[in-house]
Amino acid sequence: MTPSATATAAVVARAPATEPAGGWHRAWRQARRRPASAVGAMVVLLFVAMAIGAPWIAGVDPLQTDWKQVRKAPTLAHPFGTDDLGRDTFSRVVWGSRISMQAGVFSILLAIAVGVPIGLVAGFYRGALDQVIMRLTDAWLAFPFLILAIGLVTIMGPSLMNATVAIGLGATPTYIRLTRGLVLATAAEDYVQGARALGAGDVRLMSRHVLPNIASSLLVQATISIPIAVIAEAVLSFLGLGVQPPAPSWGTMLNAAQQFLETAPWLAWWPGLAIFSLTLSFNLAGDGLRDLLDPRDY
Amino acid sequence: MLDFLVQRAAISVVTLFVISMIVFTGVRMIPGDPARIMAGTDADAAGIEEIREKYGLKDPIPFQYLRWVGLALRGDLGHSIRTREPVVKTVATKLPITIELAFLSLLLAVGIAIPAGVLAAVRRNTFWDMLASSASLCGVSVPNFWLGIMLILFFSVRLGWLPASGFVPLRESPLDNLQRMLMPAFVLGIALAAVLMRQTRNSMIEVMSADYIRTAYSKGLAGRAVVFRHAIRNSLIPVVTILGLQMGALMSGAVVTEQIFVVPGFGRLIVESVFTRDYPLVQGVVLITASSYVLINLLVDVSYSLLNPRIRIKGSPGDS
Predict the structure, then answer these.
(1) Contact call for residues B145 and B184 (beta carbons, < 8 A)
(2) What does the angle CA B214 – CA B215 – CA B219 come to, to the nearest 5 degrees?
(3) Are residues A265 and B205, on separate chains, in Cβ contact within 8 Å?
(4) CA B182, CA B166: separation in Å to the nearest integer?
(5) Under the phi-then-psi rule, with left for phi > 0, alpha for psi from -120 to 50, and beta for the rest, what region is B75?
(6) What is the pLDDT of residues A81-103, one digit of tens each?
(7) CATH code of residue A255
(8) pTM to 2 decimals?
């Protein structure tokens, strides 16, 4: 082993350790340069807090019906009004954030857990295995996201869990393709070749050298796919294929609100506004993150 | 060039083959006995057995698959359980409605996105750029079914300008048809417009920094001529690809949009067939959707290579 190779290896090994400090510094600078992204990130955190703290924030039980308070316009006691069963809409919107977050985050975690290893193997080993994986991915991608999710929910039955799995599997081919492409580019880099020359095995190369270097791109993709997954859950529930009533999902609430557009329009405002502000904030935060991690100027 | 097209077509055939296997297996994974469902609720054991015999459900699975593919290639996708009509016939009556809707929203999206994207790129970092980019961000983020409901709330319930739902065939009355298609087409087109605008802007910015643009400027061409004669044409090439890839999103969007505005198209058919557990219909509709996605993207690749002869397959697809 030559001294320079050892030095390179040492630098490669040390590089990640010095990154966070610089990262935080850059994050702060970015936050000041892009206030919209910072606000977006804060709103996302607010929604996370709302999802976790739903029992304390909502106050009223989201499933509690009150036949004396059916479809009442917003008042102090019920700031978002009440629905057709006299349930408090504010409480239901707050609890709905839990379902949306669960569906959005867990489905994408599933897509990453399935897609990244497959893409890693395809890009790393190439050859016949890669061809087989890519043809399967092509076919998988040919099913429009929602159609695939509808098909899977038909097979598995409608529920939050199944909707999450269906959305996750719908998003998986994107991660296979992205990972494969990134691996193809990264595997040719000198530091990976260097590590290979030093005798690093395939698993070590993939986990210690390739994966850490493509992680930021995967993270950026996650900020793009989570809002899509949040909307997908709302759509599935809206169509009656996701979360089943009486559970407070924003999608099911909008479905119910459709019948009362003339008499109780506020029922359609709040759940939709909640989805919109969550996805918009995610996209704003994601834009900032992309700038932070990928300094190409767009 | 020809090599590229042949290779691309071969890949599409393989993809279609895999799709057919996925659809076939998927439908067989749906819980419940298809013969029992086809026979109806009041059928006895003998009746169920008869249906099993008639539709070859007792044959080995690979054999069933080959027969299904063979029939599908000849344009026979079986009969709907509910209406007893041939699946192909049902689809043929619904599809034109969705194609019209998709075409209108595409027109709307391209009409908004490309001028806005070019403007944002040319007047980069100005008020116009900010406005276009913010609008695009909102367009990507807004859930289209909520947007649909809000439009109905405003234009139909509040102002009473446009009918909230209902459908009039184009042939019966083009004006009434367009009046009813306006809101659905807008809802369906808005997300597409947002994505296209962003892509046009980015690709325009990239092209504007290319050497030949600098050459065009330095040989004394006016700014407008450079933008229109050189930049736009080249920057639209990647936009065409995005357009092809967005077809899937457009199809997904049609499902939701048709549901909200009660448009009796292909998207509504998908949801109906799922809810009524009409498996031959589900199978046929999903197969047609996925196949048309593959074919559209094959066409996009072909037009892409016609637009830009430099493009060749390198290694395997997906590299680029």
Answers:
(1) no
(2) 120
(3) no
(4) 12
(5) left
(6) 777 776 778 878 888 899 999 99
(7) 1.10.3720.10
(8) 0.82
